[in-house]
Amino acid sequence: MTFDTLNLMEVEILSHKIDKTAGFKVVIVDSSIIESHLTKSLAELMTSSASVFVKSYGQGSLATTSFRGASAAHTQVLWNGVNINSPMPGQTDFSQIPVYFVDRVKLFYGAGSISQTNGGLGGSISLDNEISWNNTLDVQLLQELASFETFRTFATVRLGNSRFQSSTRVLSASAKNDFKFLNNAVNRENPPIETRKDASFNQKGFLQEFSLKTGNHGMLSARLWAQENFREIPPNIMANAPEGNEKLNESFVRGLLSFDYFKGPASLTLQTGILHNHLNYQNKISLTDASNSVVSLVNSVKYQNQITNNFVVSAGANFNHHEVNSENYEATKFRNEGSGYLGLNFSFKNKLYLSFIARQEIIDGKTMPFTPSFGLNYNLTKNDDLTIKFNVAKNFHTPTLNDLYWNPGGNENLQNETGYSAESSFSFKKQSKSVKFETGLTAFYSDIQNWIMWLPDSVYSYWSPSNLKNVISKGIEFEVKLSGKSGKVDWTCAFGYAFTSAVNKKALSENDLSVGKQLIYVPRNTLNNTLQLNYRNFSLTYTLNFAGIRYTTSDNSRYLPGYVVDELRFAKRLKLGKSLFDLQFSINNLTAQNYQVIAWQPMPGRNYRFSVSYKFGK
């Protein structure tokens, strides 16, 4: 008798990719979370999905981040590898970055930012756009209606083939933003209900991408991001200001051309681009009508090669030129930045991974501090279920152009802020038949010296910066995630908690009471929690975010109470042929909390959003 079927023993083949950020904490925001936040700003995405405190003045208003107690200028933001922080204040307004224009978000905590750029004493955020070479035609129309006369419209058209792809995205958003709030500045015991005024905003944006494969090994990409942002700046609720007192108009254009070459284990990337930003600020009371213009030329080259199965080398260089015209500078100011880096990554028996990164930067002909970093991962189990990490690094942040040249007050004698950091963590994961368990605990420590602080001058009455503080930041970050399936219901529960102690260790004056005190607007305790249930094409998501007390004075004599903000979101997907309809309804601030993130800047109570998305794809 002859058998035509043979039963073979199972063979398992495992391969480990060398981790180029071994030892450092890097978090990639899940694509499903980005998908559910498409109509929101990056500030709102960060608030609900990361252990990063977002300092926000409200919907459409200025929003910045604080990684591990560092300042907003200590967070570097990169778009497809290009730093988009303004060279003037040295930061990015997260309320002006639409999630709809972003495909991938990566957070590099602490010294992990050195793998991207210098200056991220707190960390860095990488925003990337991705290409789908399988796409033939993809069309999306998305409309959102929300409380406070908020309207947002989005559209995308993607088309191409296996060699050429084009992606066009547009947005238009506006809001009167006239929400009700309890004015505790008038009466703390029985605050009257008032209406927020002069807080409207509108936004228009356009993102065009072209990608072309050149031969079998090359790819050419071109991107153009143009956007106009207008907003009224409402006064704090203790101030009396005329109607429409403050307004801000901002527009920017970011153009980027990239060439990637891949052959075997080696890759080469060349980038060049131009960034132009124009800002106009108006204030009736001070009779101010000031304009600022920034033009930046950015260039970079990156090379990577896997020399052996256990060794990867990477190197690169950047050259950036900034030109700033501001009515608050005595003359046009320039900044030239050149930098080079070298990265070495090793693996040993797929258990131990080592990462060495070194950067050297030259700014305006002056050699900046050398910034080395070292990290390691060690897998304690054969299947990588239990891993420990450790890193140690040096970093620095150069004074911004506003710090140096703002008139009046700029201080051209400022020194670089320098930071030394260390971090240790462990992660554990376990998979059973029906439940997946993941958890991690990170402990961090950083010492930032020559922290730049603006204080009123005792002689001339205007504010001026000096290298005054020495800040010690330390704490822990804990995450746990459970996911599984119960019957026909897929479920996920994620919890994150962070404790941050950011304390000034240096007296600013003889009678300074800030020594040993927590920095203002840095909560010691933050947490976020998400519970999601999926049944067929229906999902229910509940998120909760907590921020503890934030001190509003450097001696910690005054503070804002902690707050809890939650959201309940319903979503339903309908499929008709090649068309998809996504319906989403959310209730924000479900428990109608009366709270302030910034002193005397009220946040809205319970409010609602409803969106409809239509997709057609081939």
- Report how far the terminal alpha carbons are from each other: 50 Å
CATH superfamily placement: TonB-dependent receptor, beta-barrel domain
Averaged pLDDT: 92
How many beta-strand elements? 36
From the structure above, extract its key features.
Maltoporin, Chain A, 22-stranded antiparallel beta barrel, mainly beta, five-stranded mixed beta sheet, 618 residues, globular, 59% strand, 36 strands, 3 helices
Quick structural overview:
The chain is mostly beta strands. The protein is 3% helix and 59% strand.
Written description of the protein model:
- The chain is mainly beta and 618 residues long.
- The chain has a single domain (26-617), classed as Maltoporin, Chain A (Beta Barrel), CATH 2.40.170.20.
- Helix content is 3%, strand content 59%.
- It contains three helices and 36 strands.
- The chain has helices at 31-36, 42-49, 401-405, and strands at 26-28, 53-56, 63-66, 75-79, 82-83, 104-109, 123-128, 137-146, 150-160, 164-175, 180-182, 193-195, 201-214, 218-232, 246-263, 266-283, 288-308, 311-326, 333-348, 352-363, 366-367, 371-379, 386-397, 417-431, 435-456, 463-486, 489-504, 525-535, 538-547, 550-551, 559-560, 563-576, 579-588, 596-598, 601-602, 607-617.
- The protein has a 22-stranded antiparallel beta barrel. Strands 1-6-7-4-5 form a five-stranded mixed beta sheet, with no helix packed on it. Strands 2-3 form a two-stranded antiparallel sheet.
- A hairpin with a 3-residue loop joins strand 19 (333-348) and strand 20.
